[in-house]
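Researcher: Good morning. I'm working through a list of sequences from a screen, and I'd like to move beyond sequence-only analysis. For each chain I'm collecting a predicted structure so we can compare shapes side by side. This is the next one on the list. No need for commentary yet; just the structure.
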Amino acid sequence: MLTKKQLDLLAFIHKRVQRDGVPPSFDEMKLALDLRSKSGIHRLITALEERGFIRRLAHRARAIEVVRLPESLGGLPNPGFAPRVIDGDRPDVPPPSASMPTSTVHAIELPVMGQIAAGVPIDAISHVSHSVSVPNGMIAGSGEHYALEVKGDSMIDAGINDGDVVVIRETSVADDGDIVVALVDDSEATLKRFRRSGSSIALEAANPAYKPTVLPSNRIKVQGRLVGLIRTY
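Model: Good morning. Structure tokens for this chain:
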């Protein structure tokens, strides 16, 4: 189910693609929906993408493709749709079919280890604040998992917003491009994209307002890798 703003934005994008062959710019979307900033459009676009109505294409200007429409806009029902927010390293599970009964979705409780900065690093995580129910399918691979509440907007272009809860698999290693929990100087933790740069490590934001942090590798310890995300509306 879409909110009114999400439905209005999807209808506007679809209408402009039908008319012009290309989607509108973010500024045009902002004016059409009477929003004050483009960050609101980012959140709506992310929500539509999570629900499978649009797809963002890499390395192309105005790279938004309308994948399907809700019934209220003339689309067909899609009962087998299951939203995925961020792809982890879990195996794909086929959707239920008419010949296969739908099984009960099981969940496990993960500890929420306080807040993690998606911005300027904050104090290292050191305590369990509460727990959160996570679907079994979100638990990727082997090893221990935990959850963190995101604080800040530096990962917004990766679809991670302030207030989201991220699911982390404990690991001390990462590949270039992974989004990780990084401990800086054994005292501050941050959520950033990991990239090696010679003998140093770059912690990259997904927001042009934040510059990468580049430090010697001995000052950074990987504490875990992002495998999922939970958002409450």
